[in-house]
Amino acid sequence: MLSLFQLLAGLLTVTATFAWLNHRVLRLPDSIGLLVMGLGASLTLIAIEIVFPDTHLYATLATGLQQIDFYEAVMHGMLAFLLFAGALHVDFGRLRRRAPVVGAFATLGVALSSLIIAAGLWLGTEALGMPIGFAWSLVFGALIAPTDPVAVLSTLRSVNVPEKLETDMTGEALFNDGVAVVLFTITLQMAAGSEGASRFAHIAQMLVLEAGGGALLGLATGYVAYRAMRAIDDYSIEVMISLALVTATYALADAFHMSGPIAVVVAGVLIGNRGVACAMSDRTRRYIFGFWTLVDDILNAVLFLLIGLEVLVLNFNPAMAWVGLIAVPLVLVGRFISVAVSVSLLARWQSFAKGTLAVLTWGGVRGGISVALALSLTGTPARSPLLAATYAVVLFTILVQGLTLGWVVRKTAVVQEGGPRGGPSDG
């Protein structure tokens, strides 16, 4: 059994080594390159185990990886820091102007997409003779419908997206995971037969308490941190305040059963806008943004590597490959319809950048949050097919959609490489 320090040392060493190799050899976007190398290493070790069954390398590494609780590491560890780091860079003025659009995508879009995916998976698995109940199909729809903020923000870095469309994608990705976690909790309670889980009042109460309460908590803790930063001018203390803000806000949200993701996003937007404008010197601003950029890069690298390495311990049943093949087009169709409906409903009041439907559909990348939620499922026969479907969708969206999103943007949003970020504004 490895100690925590040994486990972290090994993970960081592998991450740094693979990042260097990707930079020198593969030259893929950093996060995608690490996922590819982690997946490749996993498949290589599995092949070695098959050819040389007496080797202990695979078993040793798999045992070490099993010590990492992926759900806890992502949902109660990395996610808070990654969301805060992403929210720091959000322009509140642009976000406020696009609030109806972001709100519709993050709520109506997630709910509609979840329902479409659930219905398709239920019917598809029935046709294959390996049925998944509708209740568990709804659980899958809830965990896979939202775009992953970590994966989306990582992909956006290398793509020249029009400003309006970038705001829509970023805002949706940062806020829809909080809504999705609430939906996941509700659908999981329904699937497990929890009393009262299907009552409308119960659902409304959870949405208001978790989403609304999380936003108010983030606003309150963010304001306290902002006032503390404004009272001093010492970059090292202000960096510590930002760290305390993230950890305390997420911990309080957990304690009061509120949405931690929404809370840290709201706090991050407040510090990244009001804090930068009124509470930080130029020197402090450089240090805070430099620190959180570094945190974001390191945790992104570790997370995407872990997604690739998880193949070592998931023990997929080959018979479940058909469920994954059904899930990938289903998720694309669900995403397309939910975006199209949201855009159609808002088109009379809001303008959209050219190519919005194509880019938002193809840019709906899933990542660590979906995998973490799927791994949290225990004690049900549906776990194996749902996990296989989740992993298939995550790999497809990151490796295929993530790598080709730039091409889709150039073809549909007509943004010239190196040109102005604004691009054509309406369409």
TrEMBL record:
The keyword Nuclease is assigned to this record: no
Signal peptide: none
Residue ranges annotated for the Cation/H+ exchanger transmembrane domain, each copy included: 14-411
PANTHER family reported for this sequence: NA(+)_H(+) ANTIPORTER NHAS2, SODIUM/HYDROGEN EXCHANGER
Gene Ontology BP terms: regulation of intracellular pH; sodium ion import across plasma membrane
Record carries keyword NAD: no
Protein name: Monovalent cation:H+ antiporter, CPA1 family
Entry-linked Gene3D superfamilies: 6.10.140.1330
Residue spans crossing the bilayer: 6-22, 34-53, 73-90, 102-122, 134-153, 174-191, 203-226, 235-253, 259-277, 289-313, 319-345, 357-377, 389-409
Domain of life: Bacteria
GO cellular component, one term: plasma membrane
Protein's cellular compartments: Cell membrane
InterPro entries in the record: Cation/H_exchanger_CPA1, Cation/H_exchanger_TM
Membership in a protein family: Belongs to the monovalent cation:proton antiporter 1 (CPA1) transporter (TC 2.A.36) family.
Keywords: Antiport, Cell membrane, Ion transport, Membrane, Sodium, Sodium transport, Transmembrane, Transmembrane helix, Transport
GO function term, MF aspect, one: potassium:proton antiporter activity
Mode of membrane association: Multi-pass membrane protein
